[in-house]
Amino acid sequence: MAFPRRRYLYYHRLRSLVKVVSAISGALLILFAVLSFLAPSPNESEHFHLRHHQTSFNAVVEDPVTNGDSVFHIPSSGGKLDRDIWNSRNAKFFYGCSNASAKFAKAEAVTHPTRYLAIATSGGLNQQRTGITDAVVAARILNATLVVPKLDQKSFWKDASNFSEIFDIDWFISFLSKDVKIIKQLPKRGGRTWTPYTMRVPRKCSERCYQNRVLPVLLKRHNAVQLNKFDYRLANKLDTDLQKLRCRVNYHALKFANPILEMGKTLVRRMRMRRKHYIALHLRFEPDMLAFSGCDYSGGEKERNELGAIRKRWKTLHKNNPDKQRRQGKCPLTPEEVGLMLRALGYGSDVHIYVASGEVYGGEETLKPLNALFPNFYSKDTIATKEELEPFSSFSSRMAALDFIVCDESDVFVTNNNGNMARILAGRRKYFGHKPTIRPNAKKLYRLFLSRSNMTWEAFASRVRTLQRGFMGEPKEVRPGRGEFHENPSTCICEDSEAREKVKADSRHKKHGKLDDSSRKDVMVIDDQNDYDNDEPEWPDLDDDEDQSGPQEKLLYNITGSDYDAVISDEPELEEMLSD
Q: If you ran DSSP here, which 8-state letter would residue 514 be given?
């Protein structure tokens, strides 16, 4: 009896366990069914995953100037570099030298007493400055007395200033008295005003060109000749003494009139009061400049319509391929791109910037990214009162002269195009101690700016520094005789070889015969610049169809806007607007 009872109890417990397991299994099945109903489909789940991944990728590439959260994080400081960002390397071994040689006769010995040369300049302030400089040399070639040049008062700039209102006329005459005889106006002839014979000479006219074209007119028919539209009417390559005379005129004789000079010094002093060092930036981002360039700045239909309407003013301008223009380095950098370049070169957010610019296309909105990178942002309008600027504000050349002074005195000058002001200042800063002058290597930087989203800031900055070698205003960046003389006055730059050799000898002694770092980097700069020469297009000289004596030169400089000579003969207003 005991065995059947135990068997019955065992069977009863098993049945109970099966019921419990079945109940639990059923509950789990119901729960799974509910979860399956509520869960998203596989496709939707995959879409969610991809969307999340895409958001993360965008966060990586977004620019912190506008969005602030990415791997491409722009530091507020310039970082630690192996160079002094405020001085050119090895500048101490070079100096300006423009004294005449012993064989260069005094003016009184060579000037013909009844031979007069008058000049009518053309364009804005800096284009006229090149004309004045070359006019003195032309007078010397002709052994003529120079009449103080007439400034252009009818061009695009519409400035009624005369020579004495821009430059110190008495200093100009007295400083050059040993080189060229200069008078303020033609003497009267028979008691009446003497009207000179007017003519033009071709661009880049050599010594022989002047002797063949102008001298016969002076000798045979008239004793006074006026050369009109006198800009770039003298060859780039001349005899050494004539080149040095160019330098004496440009860097010593042409001194601004006292009111301009004093106001300019005031602006410089106010910049120095804010910070020991400052950068001067010639931005050149005006609507006319951008319209001429034919470049696309991602402003959409509105930008194309606005700049296209301006462009129609010049009939000779054809439709350009914006991407091609950028690839060839013919477009000014945007203010943001200028700011990124400067930060990569080591200039932090605490650096003070003086901006020499006209009306910026897009106004404050365009400047906002640059202002975010460099908050200490000034112009003559912000550091001087309206009352202080009132004597100058109605005269474009006088206002341009104030910018010229502040840019010339800056520790670092940055140019965003290669107009006359940029060229003259580049040459002047070489002559007076090789102060850093930065020209964007726009052709190479363009590609880098396009790909910056795919790299870290450190990689970007390193690449910028590499691409800018040869574009920083260092000694020997440009081979002697290359480029425009006003930009590269190599004849007037001398090297202190003894001091350099002494430093090299000391360095070799310390490093057991190895080249010092600065020497190695000089070689790198020169090699890089030579590569750059080969990239540059050869621009034609489109002045008339007149013969010129002397070969045409390949231009060395990096043209970020255009070659201005290309439109000169057909579009005088365009030339004048772009010249400075």
A: P
Instruction: Tell me, letter by letter, the H, E, C secondary structure of 178-206.
Output: CCCCEECCCCCECCECCCCEEECCCCCCC
As a whole number of angstroms, the distance between CA 409 and CA 416 comes to 18
> pLDDT by residue for the chain (580 residues), tens digit each?
444 554 555 555 556 655 655 666 666 666 555 455 444 444 433 333 333 333 222 223 334 444 445 578 899 988 888 889 999 988 999 999 999 999 999 999 999 999 999 999 998 899 999 999 999 999 999 999 999 999 988 776 678 999 999 999 999 999 999 999 999 999 988 778 888 999 999 999 999 999 999 999 999 877 999 999 999 999 999 999 999 999 999 999 999 999 999 999 999 999 999 999 999 999 988 888 888 777 877 777 887 787 877 777 776 666 777 677 777 778 889 999 999 999 999 999 999 999 998 788 888 888 999 999 999 999 999 999 999 999 999 999 999 999 999 999 999 999 998 889 999 999 999 999 999 999 999 999 988 998 898 899 999 999 999 999 999 999 988 888 788 899 999 999 999 877 677 666 666 666 655 444 444 444 334 334 433 333 333 333 333 333 343 333 333 333 333 333 333 444 555 555 555 6
CA angle 299/301/304 to nearest 5° reads: 75
Give just the sign of the alpha carbon dihedral 4, 7, 11, 12: positive
412-415, strands of its sheet edge to edge:
377-378, 352-356, 278-282, 412-415, 437-438
Residue 462, H or E segment: helix 457-467
197-199, strands of its sheet edge to edge = 182-183, 145-147, 116-119, 224-227, 197-199
**Are 116 and 186 spatial neighbours (Cβ–Cβ below 8 Å)?**
yes
Q: 185 burial class (0-12, 13-18, 19+ CB within 10 angstroms)?
A: exposed
Q: Which residues pair with 145 in a beta bridge?
A: 116
Residue 413 DSSP SS3: strand
Tokens 């005379």 map to which residue? 245
Write out the E strands in 252-296: 278-282
Closest CA to 405 of 276, 273, 268: 268
What DSSP assignment string belongs to 110-173?
H--TT-EEEEB--SSHHHHHHHHHHHHHHHHHHT-EEEPPBP--SSTT-----HHHHB-HHHHH
Tell me the H-state helices in 40-92. Answer: 42-61
Looking only at the bridges linking them, the beta strands covering 94-96 and 493-495 are antiparallel
The SS3 assignment for 398 reads helix
- Distance, CA of 445 to CA of 384 (rounded, Å): 35
Residues 6+ apart with CB under 8 A from 85: 78, 345, 346, 347, 412, 436
The two tokens of residue 287 are 């609507």
The overall longest dimension of the chain from CA atoms, in Å, is 165
In the three-class reduction of DSSP (H, G, I as helix; E, B as strand; rest coil), residue 389 is classed as: helix
